[in-house]
Amino acid sequence: MKIVLTSKGNDLDSMMDPRFGRAECLIMYDDETKQHVAFDNTESGNAAHGAGPLTAQKVFKLKPDVIITGNGPGNKAAATLKIANISMYVGAGNMTVNEALQAFQQEKLQKIEL
Amino acid sequence: MNIVIASGKGGTGKTTLATNLASYLALKHQVILSDLDVEEPNSALFINGEQKRQTEKFKMIPKWNGECTACGICQEVCAYNAILQLGTHIILHAQLCHSCYACSELCPIDALPMEPVQMGLMTELKTPVMDFIESKLNVGEEQAVPLIKETTDFIQEQYADPVIKIYDAPPGTSCPVIEAVKTADYVILITEPTPFGLHDMSLMVGVVRDMGKPFGVVINRYGIGNDDVLDYCKKENIDVIARIPNEREIAETYSRGELLFEKFPAVKSALQDIERHLFSLDLGGKS
Lengths: 114, 287
Hints:
heterodimer; A: 114 residues; alpha/beta; Nucleotidyltransferase, domain 5; six-stranded mixed sheet; 4 helices; 6 strands; globular; B: 287 residues; Rossmann fold; 2 domains; nine-stranded mixed sheet; 9 helices; 11 strands; 32% helix
């Protein structure tokens, strides 16, 4: 399964970024290979308008099964993600990326309807 | 003559000045007053008029017809991220769209025709002494500029000189204010003599100078704060054309939705100062 997480840095010890659209970094984690890749998101994050949908589109291109973030998306990002048919889990804003992955595996994160 | 009343800082007296100046000038001249603060217009609170007409106003937004070749041009040309291409699916965020037509024109299969979307209402009132036009944006609509433009375009077409056209501009120094100031032959910047008033007025001075508009300053609530606004205007060679004194009774009268100049000689005299200044400028020939 491929998981995208919104984070403040590019490794698994980084803190999560609770924001979706303006997240500093996107980490894509593969729970079969245990490998991860980080993508800088500052360009979308600094957009004056439409940061949410722009980040959602980046996520769409990564084709993950799951997104883990803190606060959840705004309306425009949610509309974009809905089409991509990706599940979203929230509430991991105060964790590290590793902790967020553990919490997800232990089913401690809340799934939200897009 | 198009006179735009702007401020930078909110709450310095744009509506006070616009409604009183318009009503005062209307005693001798043909006047139209317009409230361009389309997000929350309030000049009408001071104007007792009869509604003549209400018109729906529209902006043009692309509408996807369901076809897509996944070329990605539409999203590439959109400066506001209003349109996203996900595979062969297009998502439009109409609130971000600035109606530039680029995606619609450049789509190779014409899948994004432009369609009118209602954004607000323009209301025309007639009072015994003048005409009044106010536009109001629909709740939830994010962009004020298209409605401001529709309103000023209508007024330019409808009212030729020598009618004196007075516009109550939105607060701030961003796009809606720029759109309102575009119409101006002269801009009155109303401020209060406080550090905050001075700071925001100085931003607005930058705006009107960049736009090449002649302007002058009116100080409202004169007597509070300090002399920094006066010192700034002197240093920058800006005309201070009138001062409206700070009086509790003036604020109370305003809060009841009443005009001030008939009751307060100091306000009337400030309006006379402005009138003299405006008519000394020879702006009348322009439109």
